[in-house]
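Hi there,

I know you've been waiting on this one. I reran it after we fixed the sequence typo, so this is the corrected version. Both the input and the resulting structure follow.
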Amino acid sequence: MTSQNPIFIPGPTNIPEEMRKAVDMPTIDHRSPVFGRMLHPALEGVKKVLKTETAQVFLFPSTGTGGWETAITNTLSPGDKVLAARNGMFSHRWIDMCQRHGLDVTFVETPWGEGIPADRFEEILTADKGHEIRVVLATHNETATGVKSDIAAVRRALDAARHPALLFVDGVSSIGSMDFRMDEWGVDIAVTGSQKGFMLPPGLAIVGFSPKAIEAVETARLPRTFFDIRDMATGYARNGYPYTPPVGLINGLNASCERLLAEGLENVFARHRRIAGGVRAAVEAWGLKLCAVRPELYSDSVSAIRVPEGFDANLIVSHALETYDMAFGTGLGQVAGKVFRIGHLGSLTDAMALAGIATAEMVMADLGLPIRLGSGVAAAQEHYRQTTATAQKKAA
């Protein structure tokens, strides 16, 4: 695959040249003051992206999956009760991790294509008179299905039930690309990674802990060593790490936060909405449907596109790679072979998105699907022309 073409998988995402240069740095003494001058601005930058004044941020050499494990092992004990919805592959994997750690998980089976059923959560939490449920898990953006869930509604469910459970949110494919309000939504632990909205290579689990989550750490009894935030906090106080840090990635994270904040978070979110809208306009012009069943669920970072019944969506992904050197995402779990995914997050522009849309059209036409070349491109172009003009007027 040529490195000249942008990629359209839902992560890792395209890496801007300035991020690549920030990560590519000489070896430094990570126990010297130089590292502290790199670390602390990165931590503060992440807090601004999370929209939190009160949380503590921890950076582990890992991925979002390691962030999930950081969340549960630092706050829970064997047998603790957890509530979650299973509405996609990544919510399923977090549930599976909890079960492997000996936690008692109540999960609400939810159709893939639907969001978190906050009303059902409220019923379950209200019925939990003894407040045995310790944590509610929520996947903000289900990467497998392109479904965005309403985290504010989950918080309202907790509040309506007057339930003290902690709220943990997987924001791996949303944070840095879509609006995320840690303090306003009462999120106790937010989990993300370096390789999506932060536009960096994989390798960092980025986790924010609220004061309430920090309090839970002292009574938690699940085993933890590598992911113990107490050791990490002690290291931060000394401008260091409890072990060897991923220096280049942390330097890159600092640069990434600077770039996001310089663009302006609301502008970042608007750019993602605009690009996603063009992809959705193309999907409609092709006569296809998204996996997400309603517009309010549509993700601004990834679109999972259903193919006609009986057609193998994996053929689109493999043909695009083999013939046009373009990468799209495959379907996962229950939607494997039924959808292909276009990732439209991170370092992406309208013009880059049009390249992906045009290539997808060629691929589907090559494979015999009834797609008229230029239909999706024209629909996306019209969307981008209109929304760009609107954005320019607002800026003026």
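Quick highlight: The chain is about 45% helix and 15% strand.

Best,
R. S.
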